[in-house]
Amino acid sequence: MDLGLTGKWALVCGASKGLGFGCAAHLVQAGCNVVVAARTELPLYDAVAKLKVLGGEATVVGVASDVTTPAGRDAIWHAVGGPGKDFDIVVTNAGGPPPGDFRDWEREQWMAAIDANMLTPIEFIKATVDGMASRGFGRIINITSGAVKAPIDILGLSNGARSGLTGFVAGVARSELAAQGVTMNNLLPGAFETDRLKQTMAGVAKKTDKSVESIMDLRRQTIPAKRFGTADEFGAICAFLCSQHAGFINGQNILADGGAYSGTF
After folding, report:
1. Within a 13 Å sphere around the CA of 89, how many CA atoms are in the beta-carbon half?
2. Closest Cα partner for 27 from 57, 3, 61?
3. What would the pLDDT profile of 64-104 be if each residue is shown by its tens digit?
4. Tell me, what DSSP letter sits at residue 98?
5. ∠ CA 69-46-132, rounded to 5°
6. pTM
7. Can you give the residue range of the structural domain that contains 252?
């Protein structure tokens, strides 16, 4: 299937590994020029090298920066010679805040979570959507979490911050931008084989005094698919939502969890 993305410019955050890399990989294979951002240089540049192989003639640019800061975002805007107005696709993605007991969190921890998982995505949206609208095509994909639909008690920081972003997107996605070809959707991963999953499972293991391996196995058994997801299949979903075929999907929370969420809605 031709996704209609050849020559488009995409920004993918948190793309040095895991779900972000999966998204970037499928976008370059669809013909997108991709700017990938992450904090740590060596993993990022390794990812850039892999993406260049996958992307053929597509341009791949790596920017090592902390996107939660104005300086970090400025580095991205100027990576391709403009203040963010030239991106056709933006995939926001940030590592979730640490698990724990809400009684132990102070204002500092809450503000860090809100800054990374709510306010930073909003800054990216604000900087790019008018340029997208002027060209009649734009895709915003926010990688949030399945915990938005089914909150997990030890992930209170993530539950709160990501739910705030979800509420914001629900409103702005239905603004005048929708009639100008700009869609905004949230992609909610369930249990995917990532470092984040291992960190969360380690937190559960500590709380329950069980081994990480046993907790991982128990989690698999709660998923109808009886396995964890892969970054590759997550990236394929992301690429489709960015494609020319997904223009009528807007303001949605797309849950990819192997059937683990048992609700009807």
Report:
1. 35
2. 3
3. 999 999 999 999 998 876 555 689 999 999 988 888 899 99
4. P
5. 50
6. 0.93
7. 9-190+230-256
